[in-house]
Structure formats: C-alpha cells, structure tokens
Specification:
The protein has four domains: 4-103, Rossmann fold, CATH 3.40.50.20; 132-200, ATP-grasp fold, A domain (Dna Ligase, domain 1); 206-447, ATP-grasp fold, B domain (D-amino Acid Aminotransferase, Chain A, domain 1), CATH 3.30.470; 456-500, no CATH class. Helices cover 39% and strands 25% of the residues. The protein is built from 19 helices and 22 strands. Strands 13-12-9-10-11-14-21-19 form an eight-stranded antiparallel sheet, with helices on both faces. It is globular. It starts with a strand and ends with a helix. Residues 477-483 and 487-501 have low confidence and may be disordered. The protein binds adenosine-5'-diphosphate (2 copies) and magnesium ion. One adenosine-5'-diphosphate is lined by residues 82-83, 162-163, 235-236, 289, 293-295, 382.
Length: 501
Amino acid sequence: MIRKVLVANRGEIAVRVMRSCRELGLITVGVYSEADRKAMHIRYADEAYLIGPAPSRESYLNIDNIIEAAKKSGADAIHPGYGFLSENAAFSERCKQEGIIFIGPSAHSISTMGDKITARQTMTNAGVPVVPGTEKIRDEQQALEFAHQVGVPIMIKASAGGGGKGMRLVKDMDDLLPSFRTAKSEALNAFGDDSVYIEKYIESPHHIEFQILADRHGNVIHLFERECSIQRRHQKVIEETPSPLMTPELREEMGKFAVAATKAVNYEGAGTIEFIVSDSLEYYFLEMNTRLQVEHPVTERVVGVDLVKEQINIANGLPLAMKQEDLKQTGHAIQCRIYAEDPDHNFIPHPGVVTHITVPLGLGVRYDGYVYEGYEIPMHYDPLISKLISWGKTRAESIARMRRALYEYKITGVKTNIKFLEKIMDVPDFIEGRYNTHFIENNSDRLLSPKLCGTECEDMAIIACFIDYLDKIEKVQPQKFTEEFASTWKDFGRKRSVLRL
Ligand code: ADP
Ligand code: ADP
Ligand code: MG
C-alpha cells in the first residue's frame, strides 16, 4: 500500500493533491525548481527536493531528476497532477521500471489517447461517435479532397496537440493549403511531430466532458458531465456542472459512450472524455485527457467524491468503492480560473509580487490556490494562481455565490482577470445558460476594454506572438525557433513597438 507520495508538480494542483494525501495519513514529498524555493507546495509538503533550474524542461519535466528525488526520499508513489509530465507515457513507464507506483494510467493508455489520430481510430472501432474527419493526412491532395467533400469550415489539428494549441480553423477554401503547410510546421516545432488530421468544424460548439473512474478490475463508472464552453483561445476559463444544455436522456447516452470509450483502452485511474456537442445536440468524441483535470473540483462538489483519494485507491489496486447507480448530482457548481494576467491588454501574463491577498470564504465557496502575501509569482510557469468554486442548490444560487465570492476576492501587486470574470457573471446569456464556445468573442464589447483597438491591438498581437515564442523555446530547442519567429515577426513589420516595451 502507498505510504509516501511524491507530487511531481507545483502551484495550486500540488497543494490540492497533498491535501488529500494528508487526509489519508500519507507522507508528502514536494519537488521544486530554483524559481520555486518559496512556493506554497514546498511549505506544505513534509519533505522537499530541488530538481533543477527554473525552466520546466530542466526541472518539472526532468524525469531523471524527479526519479532521483523519489528514490532519495523513499517515496513509493508519484502523483503527476495535470500539465507537465501527467500525460507523458515515458514517465509512466519509467516509474513502473523503477518500482514506483505512478498514480495514473499505463504508458499504453496514455500513448493511445495522447495521439489524437490513434484515439479517433480506437474510438471509431469501439462504436463511439467521433467528429467527422480524416486519419493522418498524407499530402496536400488528400487535404483538398476531404475539404471539398465536407465543405468549409474545417479544423486542421495536430495529432500531438494539447492545451488549446496546434489547431487551425479554415473558413475559406483558398486558405486550406497555406494553413495546412503552416499547421504541419507548427506541429513539428511545438510537439516534435508534424502529423495532422482534418475535422469538420462543428458550428456553435459546446464543450461537454464526462469524468470517469476506472479500477484495475474492469469496473468503470462516470461521474456525470462538466460544461466547459466558456473558453478563450480554446482554453477553458469557467466550468460548471450540471451543464445547462444537458437533458437526462442525453446525459445517460453520453455517459454510456464515455464508459465504453474508457473500456476500449483498458484504462485505469481518473480520466476525462471530452465531447463536442452541436446546438441540435449531436455529440462527438473530441479527445480523452488521461489525468486529473483542472476543473475536477466542480464534479467533486456536486457528486460528493474526492477524486484524488479515488486515484490513490485505484493505484493501490483496490476496487472502486461506488457503483454507477450510487451516484447522483446534487445542486450546481461553477469554477472560475483566476489568472495573473491583464484582460485589458490581450490577457498578457502579469507575474510579480503579491502585495495583498484576501481570499473569499463563507458558505458554498471553495478556494484552491497557492499564492500568499509577499509571494512572487514566477514568470516561468502557467499564470493560473487559483480556482474559485461556488456551490448552490440551484444554478442561480451558484452564480449569485460566485458573484459574491469574486467581490470578496482581493489581490494587489499583480493584475488578474477577477473583474473580467465578474462581468461574465452579469451577462444575460450566461445567466440564462445559453452559450457556446464563442461566448467570450460574442460578448467582447461587454467584457473587454474599449481601449483595445487600432495600433494598440497590433502591438498586443506582437507581444502575444513574443510570449508564445518564449513559451516555445522553453519547451523545445531555441535554435529551431529563431528562424520561425523571425518570419512571423517580419509579418508584423513593427519591430519598434516591441522595442518600446
Ligand atoms: P484541462 O483540460 O484540465 O482544462 P488544460 O487544457 O487547461 O486542461 O491544460 C492543463 C494544463 O496543462 C495547462 O497548464 C496547459 O498549459 C497544460 N497542457 C496541456 N496539454 C499540454 C501540452 N500538450 N503541452 C503543453 N502544456 C500542456
Ligand atoms: P486540446 O487538446 O488542446 O484540449 P481539443 O481537441 O480538446 O484540444 O479542443 C479544444 C477546444 O477547441 C474545444 O473545446 C473546442 O472549443 C475547440 N474545438 C476543437 N475541435 C473542434 C471542432 N471540430 N469543432 C468546433 N470546435 C472545436
Ligand atoms: Mg481538450
């Protein structure tokens, strides 16, 4: 049985995982980079080990150093959190070879689902509806044929993509080949794999996903859906459960497919089956995330389970303690992702020192965070600083609580998206639960500052491009990107704006 858990992550999720470990009486081991010496997860852990310099590839993505820390500490299990190594098949395999329990699925499940083309094939074989689309596109001729067959709009997607990256929407047939070429080179640069495929673009799409749990004994259950259609650049911002779009019949049907999808890869652990749903309620498998999800707390609140404890029980080889018919949704939960970013300037990340923080409390509010007064949010990682979760007997009560909690939440020293989230709580289409993934762009006049126009907008595009560049050089070799960035840069032709910064 697991006795001591190393959490191979940082930020709010490292703290959240350690909380469940502590409740289970397990010893917690933290790991940290040089930029994280003062991080909350290190203060929280029973023991902590330095695993390398600030850049993630030298620390939080450094498998050798993490394994070494696990051995030194005598940890018998590793929890990967989300992001970083959580969906890395080689890491799962390495843990196994080293005799350390990986709290997550096998390397085989991760690689089957991590490659979107293989996942689509596996789902088709299992009878799960997938978005109409292709297998791996061999050449430009094939891309043209499919596009003509289904008609635009279509999406070109990187098989290895994730985190909202590696996707291109094509609305005009003339853009197809140029987009196809750029998509391939971007995929190669960002993910080291240029395989792309094409999907029909689902109009007015809703992102609805099902939480699943699967044990080693073949038991698979789902814990209902999460609605994640409030997105910016294909990245979720607000999530809720139950979904306002859902009907009991649809829930039952999609839940069955989620379970079938999970069984098709002999899955073990917690996972998420993502679907894209059209306005007329046609639904298609989008992808599986083989890990704990950022938005898992809304499910925990409404279904009444601790998903991290379940993950640990499963990793211990225990059978699931609950059956499908035992589960029900009680009330309504919403999660807001709070980022250190500036919504008035194209959501540019805004790391810095937190000079003051007041965290919301009170009935029906959960706060998962990691920053404290005086803490300096490092620039090297994702700017997520916390997640705020509200619960109410009804959706209306849950929204009212979220509005109240956002009002109580005060942070100074860094810019955040708190005001932006507060504005969303007041948009009639949100209040009435009538929204799809275009919600933020459709309501941009209410949500975004009118200042953002003309040349400022162009400046921001250059900055966003530069940030993307910095993000990439962190992940892959710098020299590969210099050329690509130089050409993107030239397109903007406004070097001076950046120099001004
Ligand atoms: P969720 O589906 O749980 O909402 P996200 O898509 O927001 O997850 O991703 C969770 C975290 O993992 C984010 O910090 C995101 O940047 C990171 N992430 C996910 N996939 C990748 C990937 N392929 N490459 C780099 N980072 C990723
Ligand atoms: P990632 O691995 O980056 O999470 P996903 O395939 O899950 O990528 O897609 C992320 C988001 O992109 C979806 O939630 C949705 O908003 C949008 N999207 C992806 N595929 C389609 C599609 N075929 N039609 C419409 N929207 C899509
Ligand atoms: Mg996804």
